[in-house]
Amino acid sequence: MAKVTISLDSDLAIEVMLLAGTKSPQDAVELVVRDYLARGRRTEARTGDATDQDRLSDRRSAPEEGR
Length: 67
Fold this sequence. Notes:
This protein is about 65% helix and about 0% strand. With about 70 residues, it is mainly α. Helix 1 crosses helix 2.
Protein backbone atom coordinates (compact mmCIF):
# COMPACT_ATOMS: atom_id res chain seq x y z
CA MET A 1 0.00 0.00 0.00
CA ALA A 2 1.31 3.47 -0.84
CA LYS A 3 2.17 5.84 2.01
CA VAL A 4 1.23 9.52 2.16
CA THR A 5 2.91 12.15 4.30
CA ILE A 6 0.81 15.02 5.66
CA SER A 7 1.41 17.93 8.01
CA LEU A 8 -0.84 18.64 11.00
CA ASP A 9 -0.91 21.30 13.66
CA SER A 10 0.84 19.89 16.74
CA ASP A 11 -2.15 20.67 19.00
CA LEU A 12 -4.42 18.72 16.66
CA ALA A 13 -2.01 15.78 16.55
CA ILE A 14 -1.73 15.69 20.36
CA GLU A 15 -5.50 15.85 20.78
CA VAL A 16 -5.99 12.98 18.33
CA MET A 17 -3.32 10.96 20.14
CA LEU A 18 -5.09 11.48 23.47
CA LEU A 19 -8.49 10.53 22.06
CA ALA A 20 -7.13 7.47 20.26
CA GLY A 21 -4.97 6.40 23.20
CA THR A 22 -1.81 6.04 21.13
CA LYS A 23 1.76 7.23 21.59
CA SER A 24 2.35 7.84 17.89
CA PRO A 25 0.63 10.63 15.95
CA GLN A 26 0.76 8.53 12.80
CA ASP A 27 -1.05 5.63 14.50
CA ALA A 28 -3.62 8.02 15.96
CA VAL A 29 -4.44 9.64 12.64
CA GLU A 30 -4.62 6.24 10.94
CA LEU A 31 -7.10 5.00 13.57
CA VAL A 32 -9.25 8.11 13.19
CA VAL A 33 -9.32 7.83 9.40
CA ARG A 34 -10.15 4.11 9.53
CA ASP A 35 -12.96 4.79 12.02
CA TYR A 36 -14.32 7.59 9.83
CA LEU A 37 -14.40 5.31 6.80
CA ALA A 38 -16.03 2.47 8.75
CA ARG A 39 -18.74 4.81 10.05
CA GLY A 40 -19.44 5.98 6.53
CA ARG A 41 -19.85 2.40 5.33
CA ARG A 42 -22.16 1.53 8.23
CA THR A 43 -24.28 4.62 7.61
CA GLU A 44 -24.49 3.86 3.91
CA ALA A 45 -25.49 0.27 4.65
CA ARG A 46 -28.30 1.47 6.93
CA THR A 47 -29.59 4.37 4.82
CA GLY A 48 -28.71 3.37 1.28
CA ASP A 49 -26.77 5.35 -1.26
CA ALA A 50 -27.41 7.45 -4.36
CA THR A 51 -28.43 4.40 -6.42
CA ASP A 52 -31.40 3.85 -4.08
CA GLN A 53 -33.11 7.12 -5.03
CA ASP A 54 -35.54 5.47 -7.50
CA ARG A 55 -36.66 2.95 -4.92
CA LEU A 56 -37.09 5.63 -2.25
CA SER A 57 -38.96 8.07 -4.50
CA ASP A 58 -41.81 5.54 -4.98
CA ARG A 59 -42.28 5.27 -1.23
CA ARG A 60 -42.34 9.05 -0.72
CA SER A 61 -44.96 9.67 -3.40
CA ALA A 62 -47.45 7.13 -1.99
CA PRO A 63 -50.13 8.66 0.29
CA GLU A 64 -49.92 7.79 3.97
CA GLU A 65 -52.52 5.36 5.20
CA GLY A 66 -54.76 6.05 8.15
CA ARG A 67 -55.14 9.80 7.68
